[in-house]
Specification:
Blueprint: H1 2-10, E1 15-17, E2 24-25, E3 39-41, E4 46-47, E5 63-65, E6 72-73, E7 93-95, E8 100-103, E9 128-130, E10 137-139, E11 142-146, E12 149-153, E13 162-164, E14 169-173, E15 186-188, E16 193-195, E17 210-212, E18 219-220, E19 234-236, E20 241-245, E21 265-267, H2 289-326
Parallel strand pairs: 1-3, 2-4, 3-5, 5-7, 6-8, 7-13, 8-14, 13-15, 14-16, 15-17, 17-19, 18-20, 20-21
Antiparallel strand pairs: 9-10, 11-12
Length: 327
Protein backbone atom coordinates (compact mmCIF):
# COMPACT_ATOMS: atom_id res chain seq x y z
CA UNK A 1 0.00 0.00 0.00
CA UNK A 2 2.97 2.28 0.50
CA UNK A 3 3.75 2.45 -3.24
CA UNK A 4 0.13 3.36 -3.96
CA UNK A 5 0.32 6.26 -1.54
CA UNK A 6 3.50 7.59 -3.15
CA UNK A 7 1.53 7.88 -6.38
CA UNK A 8 -1.29 9.58 -4.51
CA UNK A 9 1.08 12.20 -3.19
CA UNK A 10 2.13 13.12 -6.74
CA UNK A 11 -1.22 13.11 -8.53
CA UNK A 12 -4.59 14.65 -7.78
CA UNK A 13 -6.68 11.63 -6.83
CA UNK A 14 -10.34 12.15 -5.98
CA UNK A 15 -11.32 8.54 -5.16
CA UNK A 16 -9.57 5.89 -3.06
CA UNK A 17 -11.60 2.66 -3.18
CA UNK A 18 -9.82 -0.33 -1.62
CA UNK A 19 -12.93 -2.11 -0.37
CA UNK A 20 -12.89 -5.91 -0.03
CA UNK A 21 -9.21 -6.77 0.11
CA UNK A 22 -6.96 -8.14 2.84
CA UNK A 23 -5.23 -4.92 3.75
CA UNK A 24 -3.75 -4.81 7.25
CA UNK A 25 -2.10 -2.14 9.35
CA UNK A 26 -3.06 1.50 9.71
CA UNK A 27 -4.25 4.26 7.42
CA UNK A 28 -1.14 6.20 6.35
CA UNK A 29 -1.30 9.82 7.51
CA UNK A 30 0.13 10.87 4.18
CA UNK A 31 -3.46 10.65 2.92
CA UNK A 32 -4.04 14.02 4.53
CA UNK A 33 -1.86 15.48 1.75
CA UNK A 34 -4.35 14.41 -0.91
CA UNK A 35 -6.47 17.53 -0.73
CA UNK A 36 -8.72 16.56 -3.64
CA UNK A 37 -9.96 13.29 -2.16
CA UNK A 38 -13.74 13.08 -2.16
CA UNK A 39 -14.21 9.38 -1.36
CA UNK A 40 -12.22 7.01 0.89
CA UNK A 41 -13.54 3.46 1.10
CA UNK A 42 -11.35 0.92 2.92
CA UNK A 43 -14.24 -1.23 4.12
CA UNK A 44 -14.09 -5.02 4.50
CA UNK A 45 -10.36 -5.31 5.17
CA UNK A 46 -8.27 -6.16 8.23
CA UNK A 47 -7.09 -2.72 9.23
CA UNK A 48 -6.49 -1.96 12.93
CA UNK A 49 -6.24 1.70 13.82
CA UNK A 50 -7.87 4.47 15.83
CA UNK A 51 -10.46 6.77 14.31
CA UNK A 52 -8.66 8.87 11.66
CA UNK A 53 -9.78 12.29 12.87
CA UNK A 54 -6.89 13.80 10.93
CA UNK A 55 -8.81 13.06 7.71
CA UNK A 56 -11.14 15.87 8.74
CA UNK A 57 -8.76 18.40 7.20
CA UNK A 58 -9.56 17.16 3.69
CA UNK A 59 -11.74 19.97 2.33
CA UNK A 60 -13.55 17.88 -0.32
CA UNK A 61 -14.09 14.60 1.54
CA UNK A 62 -17.72 13.52 1.14
CA UNK A 63 -17.63 9.74 1.72
CA UNK A 64 -15.70 7.90 4.45
CA UNK A 65 -16.25 4.14 4.76
CA UNK A 66 -14.32 2.15 7.39
CA UNK A 67 -16.86 -0.64 7.91
CA UNK A 68 -15.91 -4.24 8.77
CA UNK A 69 -12.35 -3.73 9.98
CA UNK A 70 -10.70 -3.67 13.39
CA UNK A 71 -10.68 0.05 14.06
CA UNK A 72 -10.88 0.78 17.77
CA UNK A 73 -10.81 3.42 20.49
CA UNK A 74 -12.96 6.50 20.85
CA UNK A 75 -13.97 9.41 18.67
CA UNK A 76 -12.57 12.46 20.38
CA UNK A 77 -14.06 15.92 20.34
CA UNK A 78 -12.03 18.30 18.22
CA UNK A 79 -12.91 21.33 20.32
CA UNK A 80 -9.79 23.35 20.94
CA UNK A 81 -7.93 21.68 18.09
CA UNK A 82 -6.30 24.24 15.78
CA UNK A 83 -7.31 22.09 12.82
CA UNK A 84 -10.93 21.58 13.90
CA UNK A 85 -12.37 24.47 11.90
CA UNK A 86 -14.60 23.02 9.16
CA UNK A 87 -13.64 19.52 10.32
CA UNK A 88 -15.36 16.94 8.03
CA UNK A 89 -17.53 19.84 6.85
CA UNK A 90 -18.35 18.21 3.46
CA UNK A 91 -18.94 14.69 4.78
CA UNK A 92 -22.25 13.20 3.69
CA UNK A 93 -21.71 9.43 4.12
CA UNK A 94 -19.97 8.12 7.25
CA UNK A 95 -19.86 4.35 7.80
CA UNK A 96 -17.99 3.06 10.88
CA UNK A 97 -20.08 -0.10 11.31
CA UNK A 98 -18.74 -3.47 12.47
CA UNK A 99 -15.55 -2.32 14.15
CA UNK A 100 -14.37 -2.13 17.75
CA UNK A 101 -15.05 1.54 18.47
CA UNK A 102 -16.13 2.34 22.02
CA UNK A 103 -16.73 5.18 24.47
CA UNK A 104 -19.03 8.19 24.47
CA UNK A 105 -19.91 9.97 21.25
CA UNK A 106 -18.91 13.62 21.79
CA UNK A 107 -21.81 16.01 21.30
CA UNK A 108 -19.69 18.75 19.75
CA UNK A 109 -18.25 16.45 17.09
CA UNK A 110 -21.54 16.33 15.15
CA UNK A 111 -21.65 20.12 15.02
CA UNK A 112 -18.79 19.97 12.51
CA UNK A 113 -20.80 18.05 9.91
CA UNK A 114 -21.98 21.17 8.10
CA UNK A 115 -23.04 19.40 4.89
CA UNK A 116 -25.58 17.36 6.88
CA UNK A 117 -27.09 20.52 8.37
CA UNK A 118 -28.13 22.01 5.04
CA UNK A 119 -31.82 21.48 4.38
CA UNK A 120 -31.99 20.93 0.62
CA UNK A 121 -34.81 19.37 -1.37
CA UNK A 122 -33.31 19.33 -4.87
CA UNK A 123 -32.23 16.11 -6.58
CA UNK A 124 -28.52 16.87 -6.30
CA UNK A 125 -25.70 15.78 -8.57
CA UNK A 126 -24.00 12.43 -9.02
CA UNK A 127 -20.61 12.18 -7.34
CA UNK A 128 -18.10 11.31 -10.04
CA UNK A 129 -15.16 12.50 -12.08
CA UNK A 130 -14.25 13.28 -15.65
CA UNK A 131 -11.84 10.66 -17.02
CA UNK A 132 -10.32 9.35 -20.21
CA UNK A 133 -12.65 6.34 -20.12
CA UNK A 134 -14.90 5.70 -23.15
CA UNK A 135 -17.94 7.25 -21.47
CA UNK A 136 -15.84 10.12 -20.16
CA UNK A 137 -17.26 9.95 -16.61
CA UNK A 138 -16.47 7.73 -13.59
CA UNK A 139 -19.18 7.25 -10.99
CA UNK A 140 -18.24 6.42 -7.42
CA UNK A 141 -19.90 3.32 -5.97
CA UNK A 142 -20.52 2.63 -2.29
CA UNK A 143 -22.42 0.00 -0.27
CA UNK A 144 -24.23 1.08 2.90
CA UNK A 145 -26.90 -0.38 5.15
CA UNK A 146 -30.11 1.52 4.52
CA UNK A 147 -33.66 0.62 5.58
CA UNK A 148 -32.41 -2.67 6.98
CA UNK A 149 -30.64 -3.84 3.84
CA UNK A 150 -27.13 -3.61 2.41
CA UNK A 151 -27.59 -1.47 -0.67
CA UNK A 152 -25.01 -0.67 -3.34
CA UNK A 153 -25.35 2.81 -4.78
CA UNK A 154 -23.91 3.19 -8.26
CA UNK A 155 -25.09 6.79 -8.29
CA UNK A 156 -24.21 8.65 -5.11
CA UNK A 157 -26.15 11.90 -5.05
CA UNK A 158 -24.70 14.89 -3.27
CA UNK A 159 -27.97 15.20 -1.37
CA UNK A 160 -27.86 11.67 0.10
CA UNK A 161 -26.72 11.75 3.78
CA UNK A 162 -26.18 8.63 5.94
CA UNK A 163 -24.46 7.81 9.25
CA UNK A 164 -23.86 4.19 10.33
CA UNK A 165 -22.29 3.48 13.75
CA UNK A 166 -23.82 0.01 14.17
CA UNK A 167 -22.12 -3.08 15.59
CA UNK A 168 -19.59 -1.36 17.82
CA UNK A 169 -19.28 -0.80 21.58
CA UNK A 170 -20.31 2.85 21.89
CA UNK A 171 -22.03 3.69 25.16
CA UNK A 172 -23.54 6.65 26.97
CA UNK A 173 -26.38 8.87 25.75
CA UNK A 174 -27.31 9.36 22.12
CA UNK A 175 -26.07 12.91 21.36
CA UNK A 176 -28.84 15.48 21.01
CA UNK A 177 -26.70 17.34 18.47
CA UNK A 178 -27.55 14.68 15.87
CA UNK A 179 -30.92 16.42 15.74
CA UNK A 180 -29.21 19.32 13.97
CA UNK A 181 -28.38 17.15 10.95
CA UNK A 182 -31.65 18.07 9.25
CA UNK A 183 -30.72 16.66 5.83
CA UNK A 184 -29.91 13.19 7.19
CA UNK A 185 -31.66 10.35 5.34
CA UNK A 186 -30.41 7.36 7.34
CA UNK A 187 -29.15 6.87 10.91
CA UNK A 188 -28.06 3.46 12.19
CA UNK A 189 -26.78 3.16 15.77
CA UNK A 190 -27.97 -0.39 16.46
CA UNK A 191 -26.05 -3.09 18.34
CA UNK A 192 -24.17 -0.84 20.76
CA UNK A 193 -24.57 -0.01 24.45
CA UNK A 194 -26.29 3.37 24.27
CA UNK A 195 -28.32 4.40 27.32
CA UNK A 196 -30.56 7.31 28.25
CA UNK A 197 -33.51 8.45 26.18
CA UNK A 198 -34.11 9.05 22.47
CA UNK A 199 -33.55 12.80 22.03
CA UNK A 200 -36.72 14.71 21.22
CA UNK A 201 -34.52 16.78 18.88
CA UNK A 202 -34.73 13.87 16.44
CA UNK A 203 -38.09 15.34 15.53
CA UNK A 204 -36.13 17.95 13.53
CA UNK A 205 -34.81 15.30 11.09
CA UNK A 206 -37.52 16.04 8.55
CA UNK A 207 -35.83 14.10 5.72
CA UNK A 208 -35.03 10.98 7.76
CA UNK A 209 -36.16 7.81 5.98
CA UNK A 210 -34.46 5.13 8.09
CA UNK A 211 -33.82 5.05 11.87
CA UNK A 212 -32.15 2.05 13.55
CA UNK A 213 -31.59 2.10 17.33
CA UNK A 214 -32.23 -1.58 18.08
CA UNK A 215 -30.24 -3.72 20.52
CA UNK A 216 -29.12 -1.01 22.91
CA UNK A 217 -30.15 -0.08 26.46
CA UNK A 218 -32.14 3.02 25.63
CA UNK A 219 -34.93 3.79 28.11
CA UNK A 220 -37.81 6.21 28.60
CA UNK A 221 -40.66 6.97 26.24
CA UNK A 222 -40.58 7.20 22.46
CA UNK A 223 -40.66 10.96 21.80
CA UNK A 224 -43.97 12.06 20.33
CA UNK A 225 -41.94 14.28 18.00
CA UNK A 226 -40.98 11.20 15.97
CA UNK A 227 -44.57 10.93 14.80
CA UNK A 228 -44.06 14.15 12.81
CA UNK A 229 -41.38 12.53 10.60
CA UNK A 230 -43.53 11.91 7.54
CA UNK A 231 -40.53 10.71 5.46
CA UNK A 232 -39.71 7.90 7.92
CA UNK A 233 -40.21 4.57 6.14
CA UNK A 234 -38.06 2.26 8.26
CA UNK A 235 -37.96 2.22 12.06
CA UNK A 236 -36.32 -0.32 14.36
CA UNK A 237 -36.32 0.38 18.10
CA UNK A 238 -36.51 -3.27 19.16
CA UNK A 239 -34.72 -4.77 22.16
CA UNK A 240 -34.22 -1.73 24.36
CA UNK A 241 -35.76 -0.66 27.66
CA UNK A 242 -38.40 1.67 26.25
CA UNK A 243 -41.70 2.16 28.08
CA UNK A 244 -44.97 4.04 27.90
CA UNK A 245 -47.47 4.64 25.13
CA UNK A 246 -46.29 4.34 21.52
CA UNK A 247 -46.90 7.56 19.54
CA UNK A 248 -49.93 7.36 17.30
CA UNK A 249 -50.46 8.72 13.81
CA UNK A 250 -48.64 9.32 10.52
CA UNK A 251 -45.84 6.84 9.84
CA UNK A 252 -46.30 4.99 13.15
CA UNK A 253 -49.46 3.48 11.67
CA UNK A 254 -47.32 1.65 9.08
CA UNK A 255 -44.66 0.08 11.31
CA UNK A 256 -44.81 -3.60 12.21
CA UNK A 257 -44.76 -5.28 15.61
CA UNK A 258 -41.15 -6.42 15.01
CA UNK A 259 -39.89 -2.83 14.90
CA UNK A 260 -40.80 -2.34 18.57
CA UNK A 261 -40.63 -5.80 20.17
CA UNK A 262 -38.30 -6.54 23.06
CA UNK A 263 -39.42 -3.46 25.04
CA UNK A 264 -41.48 -4.86 27.90
CA UNK A 265 -42.79 -1.48 29.02
CA UNK A 266 -44.23 -0.32 25.68
CA UNK A 267 -47.95 -0.44 25.00
CA UNK A 268 -50.32 0.49 22.20
CA UNK A 269 -50.41 -0.25 18.49
CA UNK A 270 -48.76 -1.92 16.66
CA UNK A 271 -48.04 -4.09 19.74
CA UNK A 272 -50.73 -6.41 21.05
CA UNK A 273 -50.34 -5.07 24.61
CA UNK A 274 -52.86 -2.31 25.12
CA UNK A 275 -52.19 0.56 27.50
CA UNK A 276 -53.86 0.01 30.87
CA UNK A 277 -53.41 -3.78 30.79
CA UNK A 278 -51.32 -5.54 33.50
CA UNK A 279 -47.63 -4.82 33.10
CA UNK A 280 -48.09 -2.01 30.59
CA UNK A 281 -46.68 0.71 32.91
CA UNK A 282 -49.50 2.96 31.76
CA UNK A 283 -51.32 4.89 34.51
CA UNK A 284 -55.09 4.94 34.31
CA UNK A 285 -56.55 8.47 34.23
CA UNK A 286 -57.88 9.76 37.59
CA UNK A 287 -61.62 9.53 38.09
CA UNK A 288 -63.56 12.77 38.45
CA UNK A 289 -65.10 13.93 41.76
CA UNK A 290 -68.63 13.59 40.38
CA UNK A 291 -67.97 9.93 39.55
CA UNK A 292 -66.79 9.28 43.10
CA UNK A 293 -69.90 11.04 44.47
CA UNK A 294 -72.13 8.83 42.34
CA UNK A 295 -70.33 5.71 43.57
CA UNK A 296 -70.65 6.85 47.21
CA UNK A 297 -74.38 7.47 46.80
CA UNK A 298 -74.92 3.97 45.43
CA UNK A 299 -72.95 2.43 48.31
CA UNK A 300 -74.99 4.33 50.93
CA UNK A 301 -78.27 3.40 49.22
CA UNK A 302 -77.43 -0.29 49.40
CA UNK A 303 -76.31 0.12 53.00
CA UNK A 304 -79.61 1.70 54.07
CA UNK A 305 -81.68 -0.78 52.11
CA UNK A 306 -79.72 -3.62 53.65
CA UNK A 307 -80.10 -2.13 57.09
CA UNK A 308 -83.85 -1.70 56.66
CA UNK A 309 -84.24 -5.28 55.46
CA UNK A 310 -82.26 -6.56 58.42
CA UNK A 311 -84.36 -4.67 61.00
CA UNK A 312 -87.62 -5.78 59.36
CA UNK A 313 -86.49 -9.39 59.26
CA UNK A 314 -85.51 -9.27 62.94
CA UNK A 315 -88.91 -7.77 63.98
CA UNK A 316 -90.73 -10.44 61.93
CA UNK A 317 -88.87 -13.22 63.69
CA UNK A 318 -89.60 -11.76 67.14
CA UNK A 319 -93.31 -11.42 66.30
CA UNK A 320 -93.54 -15.05 65.15
CA UNK A 321 -91.85 -16.23 68.36
CA UNK A 322 -94.26 -14.17 70.53
CA UNK A 323 -97.33 -15.53 68.72
CA UNK A 324 -96.09 -19.09 69.06
CA UNK A 325 -95.67 -18.73 72.83
CA UNK A 326 -99.16 -17.21 73.18
CA UNK A 327 -100.66 -20.01 71.22
Amino acid sequence: MGYCLKILEKDKFETLDLNGNQIEGKLPRSLSNCRDLELIDVGNNQMADSFPSWLGVLPQLQVLVLRSNQFNGTIRDNKGDNHSRNHFSCLQILDLSSNNFSGYLPTGWFNELKAMMTDVNDEGQVIGHQTNLPNGFYRDIVTVTFKGFGLTFSKILTTFKVIDFSNNSFYGPVPESIGRLVSLHGLNMSHNNFTGEIPSDFGNLSQLESLELSWNRISGKIPKELASLTSLEWLNLSYNNLSGRIPHGNQFLTFSNSSLKGNGGLCGLPLSKQCGSPGSNAVAPPESNSLWQDKLGIILLFAFVGLGFGVGFALSCMLRLFCHQEG
